[in-house]
Amino acid sequence: MKKQHVNKERAPIYEMMQEMKDKAYSSFHVPGHKKGQAYTESGGAGFLQDVLQADLTEITGTDDLHHPEGVIREAQALAADCFGAEESFFLVGGSTSGNIALILAVCSKPGDLLIVQRNVHKSVIHGLMLAGAKAVFIQPEPDPVSGLAVAPSAETVTAALAAYPQAKGVLVTMPNYYGMGSDLAPLAEACHQHGVPLLVDEAHGAHYGQHPRLPGSALASGADGVVQSTHKMLAALTMGAMLHVQGPRIDRGLLRQRLAMVQSSSPSYPIMGSLDLARRLLHVQGAGAFTAGLAAVDALVRGLAELPRFKLLHPQGQQPQDAAGAASAGSTAQAAIRPAAAAYTTQDPFKVVIYDDTGVLSGYELQERLEAYGCVPEMSDDRYVVLVYSLGSTEEDTRHLLDALRHITVEKADAQRSADASPAAESRHSVQAEAEKDLSLTGASSLPKSKGSPAEFSTWNILAQATVSEPIPFGLQPIPAEDTERVPLQDCADRTAAEMIIPYPPGIPLLYPGERITEDTAARLRVLSNAGAKCQGAADPNLLTIMVYKKNRKQGSHL
Ligand SMILES: Cc1ncc(COP(=O)(O)O)c(C=O)c1O
């Protein structure tokens, strides 16, 4: 596509919305709230009134996301320039809609095969189901120090492509929920040698490549189709996301059609306007947009140095450093020689992953304590708490967090006493024993033990059952009730799942229907059940039982 003159200062959708807001006219079009008029008699819509005023639809001058010729087309072109894409598409249904559309475009016929990292977000599994595609799952690399799974290695991708030359593409997630990543360029090269696209779910990396302290973007590494949740790590409204493409390997016409299938025909203008604003902020301010947010992170790193109980996760051999240091986690990562055993070389400085080094508090418990002090983390697992910073964070936020951590440190003695006596501790200890047994089964028992760690792995650390799986057919056919039965969790190992179990967050299905339940997965389910984790998809909300296929029942294309 020919590059046109770019005026970064413009925000075409937002400017149009401003004009429409100031324009006096009578609405004879949807939405029915008529710029909020519907609520005036009932006392107004409170703080939502401004949103209602901005809530437009496809009328003269507002353009059409499904056939953009005006402000939306201009805004998307500006986004492509900002993020380094040939073409960018605005998404009003989050990265979820981008992942689904991308899979539907690349796997255009039922039975088409896609090579997929196993620990993907549920939207990828749903995309496979909608496409009627076959997936060859590949194993992500577990990081031996943290015990967390990152992305598959280039060797695994190459082996899968060699075994399945009919594959239509490869899909990986980078970075993971913890902000961990590795170099995607060798994966892109492997794909391109086979003439297929590399698709990257970069939901957590919309800011990548925009500051020297941040890891490079998937597009810069050569990925062909990239999905980013602009609402997660940048500043768009929730559900605002983008799909970026470059190169000849993705059929853009088909992609447009697929996007039109999965996105509303009445896309939200507040969301699209916020995408335009989020892009403008970045485009105009450049790396400077992150100065305050990074200063807030640096203040936390300095503060944590005085709180030895709480440690930060960072790539092996690298220390987190602030702007005054030689380099940050991100830039060190770019330049680092990858340690032999490290599964990740980049850490998003904005994803601050902490853990209690005394092992007294699990990640879940530390999150609970933090919330009691008014600091709300993004998520936790048995060991870690993920704290999300962004360009919107302030040093005041950090002061609040450090105060909370100081209080929790003082609580240590009490926590130690109650932890030793509580049923949760007992169950944690038995879980640890099981975990150790399971890890020895999966060959991961060489993981270094951390002091008092409640379990040696993350519950979200899903590995494929083989480095490269057999092709697994996906589809939309419901599983006949007579083919399934409910079994207690302790009896589910070696059975075949008949429901999807999705701990949330992070929304990575631990099981999909038709997947064999290994000892390892059964142990993880018990950890989740004991911890009272929230699981979507499970028929039993308490996860004491699980739906499995009856023995000897044929498994069809999975739900
Ligand atoms: C890796 C990953 N991909 C995709 C998504 C879906 O993103 P969205 O919430 O923008 O639809 C998520 C959401 O958490 C995610 O973690």
Please tell me about this protein's structure.
It is a single chain. This protein is α+β, with helices and mostly antiparallel strands and 559 residues long. The chain has helices at 12-22, 49-53, 71-83, 94-106, 122-131, 154-163, 185-193, 230-233, 252-262, 269-285, 291-305, 329-335, 363-372, 395-410, 412-421, 423-441, 519-531, and strands at 87-91, 113-117, 134-138, 170-173, 180-181, 198-201, 225-228, 241-245, 310-312, 346-347, 351-356, 379-380, 384-388, 468-473, 484-488, 502-503, 535-536, 545-549. It has an 8-stranded mixed sheet, sandwiched between helices. A 4-stranded antiparallel sheet has the order 9-11-13-12. The chain has a two-stranded antiparallel ribbon with strand order 5-10. It is globular, with a radius of gyration of 24 Å. Bound molecules: pyridoxal-5'-phosphate (PLP).
The percent range for strand residues is 5-15%
List all distinct small molecules, including ions and cofactors, that are bound in this structure. pyridoxal-5'-phosphate
SS summary, helix count: 17
- Overall structural class, as computed from helix and strand content, comes to alpha+beta
- Report the average pLDDT across residues: 88
Give Rg in angstroms.
24 Å
Strand order in space, largest sheet: 1-8-7-6-4-2-3-14
Largest sheet: 8 strands, mixed
What is the helix content? 25-40%
